[in-house]
């Protein structure tokens, strides 16, 4: 609930945003509030609170409170399980951290992101995305910033399984590629928040041309609403100071899962394609023993040139 609420902030109206800020600041207190009390804290009307609840995917105030209470209870249970397993609770990095403590926090946050992805991943949507990719005539993969590196990684994996795959982290190239997509094509978009203007523009252009848009992004962001198939990645991560880290690892893991799904669902001739790639690459690994290492790398003396 709370990560989804974070992701929906850019799409909320000003009055609804005031309610969201109160919820994020005091989630435990809000669970016990009446609609009138929450409206008073946010300095908005009660109908605004109801509109806020519907804007974040709930049917009303009681449904919102129920989901919030379930989220807080599940978070407490996960924290207790982590404590029982001997894992430190994930805490924010601080300037006073030592290298050791900062490293521990980074690792804990990465582990938490992967566990959360495993527990929340929609297997039906994953299979649907894999089948769309297999059936596509062309696949364009796009991302910017840290997600751009994930797009490149997705290309590195999927081009081995699919006949026509390209990736780009350049906004102009993404727009041009989107404009050339049509029915039967797929655009795989990758964005942590789903609010990047470049990605949204390309997704809109691709959909206008009739292409399918698959999104690896936050569940409540604008990109999620544009997508034909949503693969949600929700990571509670502050990117105000540093580039996305745990979310990038979650995206990479999801790309791995998607690649495996494509491989499992692909026709038998895909194995022949992979075999040809392996055969072609086998000849690139020529060093099998010390005698195959060039003398200049072994430290052997350079051959003396015959003066005659």
From TrEMBL:
The record's annotation in Pfam families points to: HTH_6 (PF01418), SIS (PF01380)
- For this entry, list what GO says about its biological process: carbohydrate derivative metabolic process
- Is Transcription included in the keywords of this UniProt record? yes
Q: Which domain of life is it from?
A: Bacteria
Q: Which InterPro entries match?
A: Homeodomain-like_sf, HTH_RpiR, RpiR-like, RpiR-like_SIS, SIS_dom, SIS_dom_sf, WH-like_DNA-bd_sf
Domain SIS intervals: 129-268
Query: Where does the record place a coiled coil?
Result: none
Question: MF terms per GO, please?
Answer: carbohydrate derivative binding; DNA binding; DNA-binding transcription factor activity
Q: Where is this region: Disordered?
A: 285-308
User: PANTHER family, from UniProt?
Assistant: GLUCOKINASE (PTHR30514), HTH-TYPE TRANSCRIPTIONAL REGULATOR HEXR-RELATED (PTHR30514:SF1)
Listed name of the protein: MurR/RpiR family transcriptional regulator
Q: What is the lineage of its organism?
A: Bacteria, Pseudomonadati, Pseudomonadota, Alphaproteobacteria, Rhodospirillales
């Amino acid at each position: 609930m709370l990560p989804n609420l974070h992701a929906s902030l850019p799409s909320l109206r000003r009055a609804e945003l005031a309610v969201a800020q109160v919820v994020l600041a005091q989630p435990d207190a809000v669970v016990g509030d009446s609609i009138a009390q929450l409206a008073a804290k946010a300095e908005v009307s009660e109908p605004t609170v109801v509109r806020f609840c519907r804007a974040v995917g709930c049917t009303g105030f009681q449904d919102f409170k129920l989901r919030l209470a379930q989220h807080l209870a599940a978070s407490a249970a996960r924290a207790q399980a982590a404590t029982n397993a001997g894992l430190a609770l994930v805490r924010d990095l601080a300037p006073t951290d030592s290298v050791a403590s900062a490293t521990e926090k980074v690792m804990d946050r990465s582990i938490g992101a992967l566990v959360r992805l495993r527990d929340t991943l929609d297997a039906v949507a994953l299979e649907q995305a894999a089948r769309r990719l297999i059936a596509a005539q062309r696949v364009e993969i796009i991302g910017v910033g840290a997600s751009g590196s994930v797009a490149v990684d997705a290309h590195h994996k999927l081009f081995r399984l699919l006949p026509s795959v390209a990736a780009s982290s350049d906004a102009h190239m993404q727009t041009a590629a989107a404009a050339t997509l049509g029915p039967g094509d797929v655009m795989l978009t990758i964005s942590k928040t789903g609010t990047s203007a470049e990605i949204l523009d390309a997704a809109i252009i691709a959909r206008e041309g009739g292409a399918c848009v698959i999104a690896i992004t936050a569940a409540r962001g604008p990109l999620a609403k544009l997508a034909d198939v949503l693969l949600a990645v929700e990571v509670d991560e502050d990117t105000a100071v540093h580039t996305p880290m745990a979310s990038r690892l979650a995206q990479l893991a999801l790309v791995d899962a998607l690649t495996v799904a494509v491989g499992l669902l692909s026709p038998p001739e895909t194995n022949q394609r992979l075999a040809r790639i392996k055969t072609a690459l086998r000849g690139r690994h020529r060093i099998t023993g010390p005698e195959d290492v060039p003398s200049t790398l072994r430290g052997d003396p350079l051959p003396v040139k015959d003066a005659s």
